Amino acid sequence: MKIELNKNQKSASLHKDGPALVLAVPGAGKTTVLIQRTRNLIKMYNVEPNEILSITFSRASANDMRERFDSMFGSTCFQSVKFSTIHSFSYTILREYAFRKNIKYTLIEGQNQYTNKNKLLKKIYYDLNGEYITEENLEGIVNTIGYIKNMMYTIDDFLEENKIDIKNFKEIYNIYEDYKSKYYLLDFDDMLLFTYRILKQDKYLLNKYRNKYSYIQVDEGQDTSKLQLEIIKTIATPKNNLFIVADDDQSIYGFRGAFPKGLLNFDKDYPNAKLFYMEENYRSSKNIVNVCNKFIKQNTLRYNKNLFTKNKILKPIQIIRAETVLDQYEYLIGELKKYNDYPNTAILYRNNISALGLIEYLAKNDIPFYIRDKKINYHNQWIVKDIVEFLKLAYDDTNIQAFENIYYKMRGFTFKKYVSFAKTLDYNMSVFDRLLKYPRLNEDYVKLYNELKRDFKYLAKLNPKDSIAFIESNLKYERYLKENSIKFGYTYDSLKTILFDLKMIAENTEDINEFLGRLKYLDYLISQSSKERNGVTLTTIHSAKGLEFKNVYMVDLIDGDFPTSNSIEAFFKGNLDLLEEERRLFYVGMTRAKEVLDLITVKFRNDKIVEPSRFLVELEELFKE
Questions:
Q1: What is the mean pLDDT of residues 309-317?
Q2: Cα dihedral sign for 516, 517, 522, 525?
Q3: Whole-model pTM?
């Protein structure tokens, strides 16, 4: 099968020996170039297929490259060309090393393992801190451990440069690492770290894999971590036939340890490296491409590329300023029904929080949807869990377990020893009556527990919407969110939005059972959405990378959420990295669109004026130009 390539694509695909970096803009056909270059190595330059290693960063991408390669050139001739993820390749080396050294490693990733990473970290956290870890803090620990390893930090070096708001994090890290080492357990990041160490220590394996793969190709090079890049460079040495296809403007995984500086320093690492530019976009309309090109040029930490297209000018990019979140939803419903092209449409957002209200609104309007992020689940959302615990206690004030889950999230302060005491008394007695029996309880606490007992009785009589509002204000749950929002990695306003969404869902329900039933139904729709082939795609921008849609709507574009308040604060302290990554993320979102691109913000959220994303302000200045 003949592939038509433009001049720049062809130049890159004909590269044979030595290091090369191909800088490819969104929609430039980079995978096509990688596949064509693989064929050229074999057919034009007589390289043996089994000498070529092509690395990408997800199993889906590796499978896609293999399928596309086979469909273009036939699966029989070049079956020995290896398309692999970096983790799979590392695991191959690790297994061979373990076999030679007679070591039995056990992988602790995945929920089905008897000992898995999450269970182990939960236990360590509980043993050290005497309390159960939240899902958010668990995710924070997992991401931070991965970041430390992928950036090749020691724990002390990392903590010297970074502040992490998790109690006893260093101890958790050290206990986790020691336990794994003792029992030969591995997580995904260990697979990389151990492989790197093996290559540095085991000359036999190092030389074996260097001799085996004379040509190494890397897709999505901007997503490589420092550790991954070191593994690849180590195998490629000394021939240095290393061919990396990347777009530094699409490096959006800094929190995982992605290391775009590795690309920016490529010519320093390899002074004789060839640089190829693929700047033509085949995906988007001319107006979208022109604006995106000017927008991303505001970043300073980048290669100077010029995004262009020969596609036509179509519908202009629109910035929509809705009054409220509900007005935003109404606008979306109107647009979706107007175009009636659900399978070719995506709604993109910065955080999964944005999906909760959207799902309810789409379901209410009978619009089918598909959710890429499988983790979204109302019942797993910690604020939803908290509200449910409050309601459980309201309907049964003997429920000590519900009280234990929320006592530090409500009005007043209760010592842990009071809860422990209450757990020793009659389980058929009200939790508050049990607390009142604590020896020598002072008058302030007597008053507090009597008031709380009355409040929870009153709460049980309210309809679902009013009960959430009562928990929020009278029981001071709102104050708890305000005090802990930064710790959980959110703005206070975005957490308030979850309560707003819950009240919106509760509005059409008459009692607690109907409300919980509605949440269950929405969770069912989410779980079934993977089978929905004719629905609107809902996804974070991170998960949308690599995808394209005819119509794209980016929502909740509010300053402090997107870009995040952390990145804005860092920018004013002179650190550009975080804000520039946020701008790259915004750019990735915009470049998913082929024809229609609407950028939507709101003027009021939670009855408070909010500012539009500063990226929208930048874009409006570009529109004037």
A1: 94
A2: positive
A3: 0.88
